[in-house]
């Protein structure tokens, strides 16, 4: 029986696309490549069904792959960066809430007025 790796242990060799793109560890890489390959098939097959030109259909398929992959990549990375910024703002807000809680600098604390000290 093969030994299963523990959750904290690294798995085997990571899958790299073209030897440079680590699909497992880079956010958005897997989805972008999958959608790009689907776009390639749709664009190439659609062009072939319309024109019956094999070489041009392959060129259109490669172009479809590049366009769809880059489009999905930039869209996903933009949303990923936006999410990271929101997380950082929330983290700073929680840190400030913990830091200033029950002090005179707490923005939620209402100022008390002393009527006896007049």
From TrEMBL:
Major subcellular site: mitochondrion
Which keywords accompany this UniProt record? Membrane, Mitochondrion, Mitochondrion inner membrane, Transmembrane, Transmembrane helix
- Give me the Gene Ontology terms describing cellular component: mitochondrial inner membrane
InterPro entries membership? Cox20
Superkingdom of origin:
Eukaryota
Localization terms from the record: Mitochondrion inner membrane
**GO process annotations (BP):** mitochondrial respiratory chain complex IV assembly
Q: Name one Pfam family in it.
A: Cox20
Q: Per the record's keyword annotation, is Heme included, yes or no?
A: no
What PANTHER family does the entry give? Answer: CYTOCHROME C OXIDASE ASSEMBLY PROTEIN COX20, MITOCHONDRIAL (PTHR31586:SF1), CYTOCHROME C OXIDASE PROTEIN 20 (PTHR31586)
Q: Which family does it belong to?
A: Belongs to the COX20 family.
Name assigned to this protein: Cytochrome c oxidase assembly protein COX20, mitochondrial
Organism per entry: Vulpes vulpes (Red fox)
Q: What is the lineage of its organism?
A: Eukaryota, Metazoa, Chordata, Craniata, Vertebrata
Gene responsible for this protein: COX20
């Amino acid at each position: 029986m093969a030994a299963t790796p523990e959750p904290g242990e690294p798995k085997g060799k990571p899958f790299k696309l073209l030897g440079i793109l680590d699909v497992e560890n880079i956010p958005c890489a897997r989805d972008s490549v999958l959608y790009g390959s689907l776009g390639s098939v749709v664009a190439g097959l659609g062009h072939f069904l319309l024109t019956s030109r094999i070489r041009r259909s392959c060129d259109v398929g490669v172009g479809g792959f590049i366009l769809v992959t880059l489009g999905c990549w930039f869209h996903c990375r933009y949303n990923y960066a936006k999410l990271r910024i929101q997380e950082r703002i929330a983290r700073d807000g929680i840190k400030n809430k913990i830091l200033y809680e029950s002090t005179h600098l707490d923005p939620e604390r209402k100022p008390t007025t002393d009527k006896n000290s007049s």
